[in-house]
């Protein structure tokens, strides 16, 4: 694709990166076939190819309207288009540049700004979110039905378990909302890793991975979170922590991109690249172990549907990995139509683009339930909570079911 990016932009690192990505696009349109928003809305500008042209026009100095912002906002950043693209266009990176640019050129309404500000001052902060969630759970019974659906019922605390201190150690990333919404997920990770003689090290003062802020154009906040996590984890890495494990694929994919996002930072570039190289989804890390040691005959759900999060299959390129693990554990997997399509959660998307998100949510549940599963398993806390709102069967993280196989 030929480009004529404005000189004031083309001489910046961001502009050069945008030009590199734009030139790799051959305008074939394969991406539209797997784009959830294009399939729903049928508008070329709500598909990857159309959005690429909007970004290109903007960078070339053409007039930018409010509609440009709307079309870019509607993108889920699911990156299904990247999986489909024969030319390897790094659309997610280009979209970040496009959103960053349009934010400077088009002003949002005051209520949009306020809503985004409140999201960025609550969700990425673990203690603040936990406090607000607790309040919501206490007064859940008096809330409107629509709001009540968003607040999960408080789970009973499980008894604390003591695990051995092993020679092999990994850093276990907790995330900002998962500890409050579903603490059992990482407890299950710890249990499974302990079974394979690996100790999981958690940090109470860990910060948000930065994904939420990054995708909402709060770049300074995102970079601050990222750098603080690098400083926090670095001593453990120097002491031999062999991996950074994430049980939330949304966090995992972002930490894997620390190296790219901080590539021009003289102080943090090298450390960020190291963190990215050490980061693994829990399904990825478990591949090296003899999983047959687990008592697979105890598998509790005879038939399950697996929802592969976009951040796992398109972002981390680990499509099919977890499904193979679950099959080895004796779970019967149902066929899921359009498994490449997003469930509509997509970080804060379900809060900001409710109408599209709800349609995708319904489509995903309909497809997941076609095989009449007893349970739906997934690999990301956002997907789990989003689907549970409308699912007729339990929705859980798959590692919880694996942990249940251990006596």
Notable characteristics:
single chain; 407 residues; alpha/beta; Fumarate Reductase Iron-sulfur Protein, Chain B, domain 2; Rossmann fold; 4 domains; 4-stranded parallel β-sheet; 7% strand
Q: What is the structure about, briefly put?
A:
By secondary structure, the chain is α/β, with parallel strands linked by helices. The chain contains 24 helices and eight strands.
Can you offer a commentary on this structure?
The protein has 407 residues and is an alpha/beta fold. It folds into four domains: 7-107, Alpha-helical ferredoxin (Fumarate Reductase Iron-sulfur Protein, Chain B, domain 2, Orthogonal Bundle), CATH 1.10.1060; 111-150, no CATH class; 168-286, 3-Layer(aba) Sandwich (Rossmann fold); 293-403, Rossmann fold. Helices cover 51% and strands 7% of the residues. It has 24 helices and eight strands. It has a four-stranded parallel β-sheet, with helices on both faces. Strand 7 (375-378), helix 23 and strand 8 (395-397) form a beta-alpha-beta unit. Helix 2 packs across helix 7, helix 4 packs across helix 7 (91-105) and helix 5 runs antiparallel to helix 7. It is globular. The protein starts with 6 loop residues before the first helix and ends with a helix.
């Amino acid at each position: 694709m030929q480009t004529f990016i404005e000189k004031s932009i083309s001489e910046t690192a961001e502009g050069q990166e945008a030009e590199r990505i734009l030139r790799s696009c051959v305008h074939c349109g394969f991406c539209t076939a797997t784009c959830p928003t294009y399939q729903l809305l049928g508008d070329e500008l709500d598909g990857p190819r159309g959005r690429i042209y909007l970004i290109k026009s903007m960078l070339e100095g053409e007039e930018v309207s409010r509609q440009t912002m709307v079309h870019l906002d509607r993108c889920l950043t699911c990156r299904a288009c990247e999986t489909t693209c024969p030319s390897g266009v790094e659309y997610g990176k280009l979209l970040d540049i496009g959103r960053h640019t349009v934010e400077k050129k088009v002003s949002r309404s005051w209520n949009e700004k306020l809503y985004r500000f409140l999201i960025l001052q609550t969700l990425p902060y673990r203690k603040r979110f936990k406090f607000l969630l607790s309040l919501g759970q206490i007064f859940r019974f008096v809330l409107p039905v629509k709001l009540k659906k968003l607040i999960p019922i408080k789970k009973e605390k499980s008894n604390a378990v003591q695990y051995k201190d092993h020679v092999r150690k990994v850093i276990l990333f907790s995330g900002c909302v998962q500890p409050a919404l579903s603490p059992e997920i990482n407890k299950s990770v710890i249990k499974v890793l302990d079974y394979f003689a690996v100790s999981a090290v958690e940090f109470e003062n860990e910060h948000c991975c930065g994904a939420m802020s990054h995708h909402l154009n709060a770049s300074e906040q995102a970079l601050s979170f990222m750098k603080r996590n690098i400083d926090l984890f670095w001593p453990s890495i120097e002491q031999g922590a062999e991996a950074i494990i994430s049980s939330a694929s949304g966090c995992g994919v972002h930490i894997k991109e620390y190296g790219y996002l901080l590539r021009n930072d003289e102080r943090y570039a090298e450390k960020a690249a190291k963190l990215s190289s050490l980061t693994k989804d829990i399904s990825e890390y478990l591949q090296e172990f003899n999983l047959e040691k687990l008592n697979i005959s105890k598998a509790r759900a005879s038939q399950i549907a697996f929802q592969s999060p976009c951040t796992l299959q398109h972002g981390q390129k680990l499509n099919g990995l977890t499904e193979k693990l679950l099959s080895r554990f004796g779970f019967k997997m149902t066929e899921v139509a359009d498994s490449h399509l997003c469930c509509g959660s997509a970080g804060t998307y379900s809060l900001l683009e409710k109408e599209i998100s709800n349609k995708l949510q319904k489509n995903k549940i309909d497809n997941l339930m076609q095989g009449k599963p007893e349970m739906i398993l997934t690999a990301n806390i956002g997907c789990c909570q989003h689907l549970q709102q409308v699912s007729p069967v339990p929705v859980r993280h798959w590692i919880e079911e694996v942990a249940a196989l251990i006596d």
